[in-house]
Write a structure and sequence with these properties.
alpha/beta; Rossmann fold; four-stranded parallel sheet; 8 helices; globular; binds zinc ion
């Protein structure tokens, strides 16, 4: 019998137990979660971390979602886990990150909600990647919360270019009308729209618009990681 080698799911360094982070990642993660936790300085509307009051984006253009929250800032082991999930095909990390999403809903950040809806990928992107990380995250969070995941409620009807090198205004234009919601799929429901990362909130805003147009009662945004500062 060989002793089982236990590795940190985020950085692969030795860890103390199964599914346990290494000491360094564990400490940093706790500090990051606190920066988006109860009483933390985040934008009251979109949840962008590191903001003392309503952020510039929400002041200039109030989003369609009622509220959005991030579990943590996009930094350190959180950023590493999101990147490995998305681009390293480490799909098991969705089950590692899901509880952090669930925790935001469980502590009552939005009040009562009815279902989770993942931000969809365009079919071409889905074929290329093989999975939608937002769906995996929503499923994991849904299991912890006992909430259904309405996977097909929102569709991406237009391929959009990557948002990475776009400034705020371009991001909003890029995703405008990119989504459509199936009429009747979310009638009157209090929907939590789930994504991996929020930068300007343009994607959540466009998705929320489509869900509200299809009859959703209320839309909240929930992401693993919120980007603290956005600069062109
Ligand atoms: Zn680690
Ligand atoms: Zn804001």
């Amino acid at each position: 019998m060989f002793p089982r080698l236990l590795r940190c799911p985020v950085c692969d360094r030795p860890a103390s137990g199964p599914d346990a982070l290494c000491g360094g990642c564990g400490q940093t993660l706790a500090a990051l979660l606190a920066r988006c936790g109860p009483g933390a300085a985040v934008c009251p509307r979109c949840g962008k971390p590191g903001e003392a009051w309503y952020c510039a984006g929400c002041r200039e253009r109030p989003p369609a979602f009622a509220l959005a929250r991030a579990a943590a800032p996009y930094s350190g082991p959180v950023q590493e886990a999101v990147l490995r999930l998305k681009f390293g095909r480490a799909t098991w990390l969705a089950d590692f990150l899901g509880p952090f999403l669930a925790g935001v809903v469980a502590r009552g950040a939005f009040g009562p909600v009815d279902c989770l809806v993942p931000v969809p990928l365009h079919p071409a992107r889905l074929r290329q990647r093989g999975f939608n990380q937002s769906l995996l995250l929503a499923r994991s969070a849904g299991r912890w919360l006992g909430l259904p995941v309405a996977a097909g409620a929102l569709r991406r009807v237009r391929a959009t270019r990557s948002q990475v090198d776009l400034v705020a205004e371009e991001r909003a234009t890029n995703v405008r009308d990119a989504f459509a919601a199936a009429p009747g799929s979310v009638d009157g429901a209090r929907v939590v729209l789930v994504d991996d990362v929020m930068t300007t909130g343009a994607t959540l805003d466009a998705g929320a618009r489509a869900l509200l147009a299809a009859g959703a009662g209320q839309v909240y945004g929930l992401v693993v990681a919120g980007v603290e500062e956005y600069s062109a």
